[in-house]
């Protein structure tokens, strides 16, 4: 099938007819009703849609946190199925940036950035060095000893960005990355993402409500009622 | 793999440190459990060692004949309790080859008095051969000769305590067990702790006098061999000789090794019973750990979700929480062990009793607390590892 689809090296994501439904009690609720999507390497894509549109479910599936009922999802040309080592795929291929930052409390920000590298089996010296390098890159070189709760929201999101970059993933999913920030701080975070995209070719899928954010992206994909418009 | 475990250790220690009070309370159950197990077992083992040391001092050329067949299935049966040796047994035993000396022994704990001074001591009804049997020497005076005279020999300490010196005690009256006797001799200071009794605090009375004046009966005869190397052969011969006369085995013939083993069995049994009872507190400690770990897993659901999103496998989440539980109970075990040591030290100072914390006890208590961590940590850890990442991330 992959050959028929003609997936090139530039296609980070190819999704064909993704379907997903949830069963609550006796009732079956279809959430995704055949989603088709392609994301090219180096692209910055905005995924927009009202709540309940199936946006989060799609993000979970693309981020390999969940699997589809029907359809085919190719990440880096490889079909993602339940039988694969999904933890390893998440670790190696995917980065996440969350609206609520989702840092681990009580450990330093350097250690937070190290977490994905721990699961990748990178030796301590090497990963510490890389974590510090990444934190300096996002402008937190002066905060290395701090714990997440000693940082402002914007700073926390920078830590999350550094963490998402840790294992050089193929794609980073940013779920409402500025949703919990004031507009000024949000702008700096957006600038950071844009720079990473333009200067280092990092591929992003940004989930957002914000039309302003979507405008700085290369392409906008709208999802409504479980389908891409 | 090893690296993941090292990381788990690091994160376990971090989590324990960031919740100091809770971690300590969680450990407390294990601390108390291990402390009580270690203290009680070391006390019993100290007792065991003391007993064995005493028996190893007796000398291997001694054989003890006691009433009742204590090797039978029920040593506490009625027939065993009322079994007696006969006076004629002494002559029978004396006639066996390789037997040097024979003395009956009637032990009776008594109050020993002289005018205004008194002390506790052991009254021992024994034939004058006892001096040779136990290798005892006179400090002053001499041994009684007849088995029925009203004269006694006293231990060195008794003479000093009640009369001031051995010489002053000679020829004086002494009251023991309510009867008055004349002191015929005083033993030399007996530094080696022989047999089961402290001879320095004893009063030796002729056997027939003992039977006549006090409510005792013949339940023990002590034999000294000429050649200790023939111990087992002599034991067999003595058994046959008595069996022929008694017609049934209503007696036991024991070497000092046998005696040590019997008492060893008792202390071994004590160890198991006390260890078993105190292990219950370890069990309770384990349940405490499980409880806290379950709370811990719920509280850290979000963290589990984050870790899974970042690439943690079910297995690495499982080991993370398992190792945390094991570390908590292992630290608890180590603290309990240290407290057990401290208790042993205090007991030594206060009660002058050397408890004995063996290497096995240390290994056992640490091993057991690790086991507690594993057993009671596995359910919460498994719980954590099975969390769905999407739902865990949504958890607030």
Textual characterization of the structure:
Chain A is of the alpha/beta class and 229 residues long. Chain A is built from eight helices and ten strands. In chain A, strands 6-7-8-3-9-10 form a six-stranded mixed β-sheet. In chain A, a hairpin with a 2-residue loop joins β9 and β10 (227-228). The longest helix of chain A is centred in the C-terminal third of the chain and has 18 residues, at 183-200. Chain A starts with a helix and ends with a strand. The model of chain A has no long low-confidence stretch (mean pLDDT 92). Chain B has helices spanning 2-18, 20-58, 78-81, 87-94, 130-134, 156-163, 166-169, 207-213, 231-246, 256-299, 301-309, 314-351, 359-385, 389-394, and strands at residues 62-67, 99-114, 117-126, 138-141, 151-154, 173-176, 179-187, 202-205, 220-225, 251-255. In chain B, strands 2-3-8-5-7-6 form a six-stranded mixed beta barrel. In chain B, α1 (2-18) packs across α12 and α2 (20-58) runs antiparallel to α13. The interface between A and B is medium-sized, with 27 and 23 residues.
The overall pLDDT average of chain B reads 86
Mean pLDDT of chain A: 92
Structural class of chain A: alpha/beta
Q: Strand percentage of chain A, roughly?
A: 25-35%
As a whole number of angstroms, the C-alpha radius of gyration of chain B is: 31 Å
Specify the biggest β-sheet of chain B.
Answer: 6 strands, mixed, barrel
Q: Tell me the strand percentage band of chain B.
A: 15-25%
Largest sheet entry of chain A: 6 strands, mixed
